[in-house]
Amino acid sequence: MFKKILIANRGEIALRVIRTCREMGIQTVAVYSTADRESLHVRFADEAVCIGPPASRQSYLNIPNIISAAEITNADAIHPGYGFLSENAEFSRICADYGIKFIGATAEQINFMGDKATAKATMRAAGVPVIPGSEGLLDSVEQGKELAKEIGYPVIVKATAGGGGRGMRIIKDESEFQKAWDDAKMESGAAFGNDGLYLEKFVEEPRHIEIQVVGDQYGKVCHLSERDCSIQRRHQKLVEETPSPIVTPELRERMGQAAIKGASAINYEGAGTIEFLVDKYGEFYFMEMNTRIQVEHPITEEVTNFDLIKEQIKVAAGEPISGQNYTPQRYAMECRINAEDPANGFRPSPGKITQLHFPGGHGVRIDSHVYAGYTIPPNYDSMIAKIIVSGQSREEVMTRMKRALQECVIEGIKTTIPFHIRLMDDPGFKSGIFTTKYLESFDFGGL
Q1: Where is each Biotin carboxylation domain found (predicted)?
Q2: Does the pTM exceed 0.70?
Q3: Which of 144, 180, 246, 409 is most buried (most C-beta within 10 Å)?
Q4: Catalytic residue (choose from 169, 227, 252, 292)
Q5: Which one is the CATH code of 132-201: 3.40.50.150, 3.50.50.60, 3.30.1490.20, 3.40.225.10?
Q6: Using CA atoms, how far apart are residues 287 and 274, in angstroms rounded to an integer?
Q7: pLDDT tens digits for 172-193?
Q8: Which stretches within 328-440 are classed as H helix?
Q9: Which residues of 251-371 form beta strands (DSSP E)?
Q10: What is the pLDDT of residues 327-361, one digit of tens each?
Q11: How far is Cα 176 from Cα 269, in angstroms, rounded to an integer?
């Protein structure tokens, strides 16, 4: 087992990893930018190293500085958390070159899944259902038009290196194709330095369902059931729940086995997530694989009583997986609390938290790195806390979540709490029948 782990991240996920390491008797090293000097992960780690100024590219994305921090502290492993360098194949490779264990996927596995066209081809070969579309990248707009005629409109073009909805365009008929193509190439080239595009059939009335998987170094893979991530705004998740209201036992079994096939096809090591779109007919299609821990992993932990961070560390240390395929017996939901103003287009709201009270009670868990007096920097993601609740039914969970949200006091900044409270009372959300487009017609006025 590792003696010392450096956490190459910040905020609540860094704190989350530190907690598990402490329970396992493993020393921790925090890295931080000058903007995060007063963050709790810096205070609670055994050691802390400043790796640069506030800009991410000069600190949390600065591989030489992070490797140097690991070397001077004699860390024998690095946990990347999520975001930043967590799915950076070059970082995984460099860690291996320096004899530091990267707690996550290998460079080869990340490369397999990091390029969407390659990932789709890999999954198709493994027998995982994929959305009809191009076999790889499109060579020309004419090729795209011909394929769209074959599979039928509507279609969607996507950036192969994309994320967060950038480099994506829905095309309803051929007259829209040229402009959508040009816009997507320009946006993806500017955002990712790669303007490669592929085309898919556009899935109607989709739900975003992901399967949590864990694999070890000995070829074994298990799944820990699904999470429903359909409540999104501009492709950014706001609420996640498990089990999904629309997943039947039969569908869960098929999706779980497909996820295991997909992860096994690349000999996957560590915790990862196979993400699917489920259409209005109940058919599911591979969307992408996240080769890292997810923001929403706590809801799976709550219904399985299974520490996913601990499992990541054990698998990285060469131990076989201890998990098994799981059918949920309880319900859990997570609301992401962001420093944003939902009444004004979710405008970022960095600044000093003057008063803070987090909720508690049975079935309530808070993952956060903020405290009264903490100043939220404007340089990073706006998520400041996750409220996770669990219970015996979806109705109980929604009632408990509303109570927890109403109990939560964060003053000095705007947060997404008013939106979440309204959502818990929303008839459409309560029904469990909604799509990834649900918030496009949601009333955000007066929050």
Answers
A1: 1-444
A2: yes
A3: 144
A4: 292
A5: 3.30.1490.20
A6: 8
A7: 999 999 999 999 999 998 888 8
A8: 394-407, 417-425, 427-431
A9: 270-278, 284-290, 331-338, 340-341, 347-348, 351-352, 355-357, 364-368
A10: 888 999 999 999 999 999 999 999 999 999 999 99
A11: 42
